[in-house]
Amino acid sequence: MKNFIRLILLLGVSSISVIVNAQMSVTDYSNNDSWSVICTSPQKQIDVFFVHPTTYEGPANGRYTADLSDTAINNFTDKTAINRYIRLFDDNCNVYAPRYQQVNIEVLSMNKTDKARYIEIPKKDIKAALIYYLKNYNNGRPFILAAHSQGSNLIHDILLENPDIINKEQLVAAYLPGWTFTQEDIDNIGINISSSPEETGCLMVWNTIGQNGSSPTLTNGALCVNPLSWNSKLTNQPKSKNKGAFILTISGTEAEIDNFTSAMITESGGLQIPKPDTIYDQLDMSMGPNCYHRYDYDFFFNNVKENVGTRCNAFLDKQSK
Q: In the beta sheet, which residues pair with residue 15?
């Protein structure tokens, strides 16, 4: 004990947090309380395994991973992410959405080493949740992998480190916006980038920015699929192809806007849109004036929702032949 105390004094407070958090146990997914949504009586032919984005955004105060017994965090997660985004999938899918020890948004500004050590905690959770879902709930059904932001980061890392963790023949599609996937990543994972709206077993990823914009999740070599065309062509897609946005504003209201925006893929792999002047002052732009990371799904909501149905039907059609 004396040696441990001496080590703490030498390392300082930030390192204490790393040590303590690194010792946290993996969440028990046999406990229903470890799931935000869990379909116990599946009625549909296809599942979705959905990993929510970062919702632990307040001051960490030394605790950089979320406490899953914190009802305030859980309620905020359900309101701003789970309950909103599962609407993209629940017409066609049985929904499985785990809670996990997500890292606080402050971890993004840490040095690379500390950040990597913290992200191990939620990564172990989501890997455990995925394995538990596949073994205990899936029962051989086709499934979609879906996530955003931190959730997409975790799925990216899990698939990269464990490319055989899923049966790719069961994979309808993977919707993983809000993170960077490179060509090397997908070659190693073994899942191709989408080239058409009906393709199955493929990956969709995008990072939404304004003109000359950047995003902390958009890095060198990023691939991109335009949700207005569902391919990676650099051609601008007009807003007439946008079937409707469903935007959570800073006031907590939800705005539904038809033909919301055009979009085009840039040479650097970003999904660029013009400034949405009609609603810009109602958006949370805390990540930068041209970073629309928080709205990767919102701005293209109905396109994603429709495409989920299209790919599910295409998968089931192929199975029936």
A: none
Inter-residue long-range contacts of 38-42, CB under 8 Å, 24+ positions, other chains counted: 38/96, 38/97, 38/137, 39/94, 39/95, 39/96, 39/137, 42/94, 42/137, 42/139, 42/141
In the chain, how many H helices and how many E strands? 8, 12
- Phi-psi region at 88: left, alpha or beta (left = phi > 0; alpha = psi -120 to 50): alpha
Averaged pLDDT for residues 11-30: 61
Which residues are CB-neighbours of 240 under 8 A, at least 6 positions away?
Answer: 259
pLDDT at 1 over 60: no
Give how far the C-alpha of residue 317 lies from the chain's centroid of Cα atoms, to the nearest Å. Answer: 27
Average pLDDT, stretch 244-271? 97
What would the mean pLDDT of 201-213 be, rounded to a whole number? Answer: 97
Please compute Rg for the chain using Cα positions. Answer: 20
What's the mean pLDDT in 104-108? 91
Residues 6+ apart with CB under 8 A from 2: none
Helix (H) or strand (E) segment spanning residue 305: helix 301-320
Instruction: Give SS3 for 153.
Output: helix
157/189 Cα distance (integer angstroms) = 10
Q: How far apart are CA 14 and CA 31, in angstroms?
A: 31
Report the candidate in 160, 166, 210 with the shortest Cα–Cα distance to residue 189.
160
Distance from C-alpha of 159 to C-alpha of 14, rounded to nearest angstrom: 30
Query: Averaged over 57-65, what is the pLDDT?
Result: 90
Nearest-CA neighbor of 160 among 178, 177, 137, 183? 183
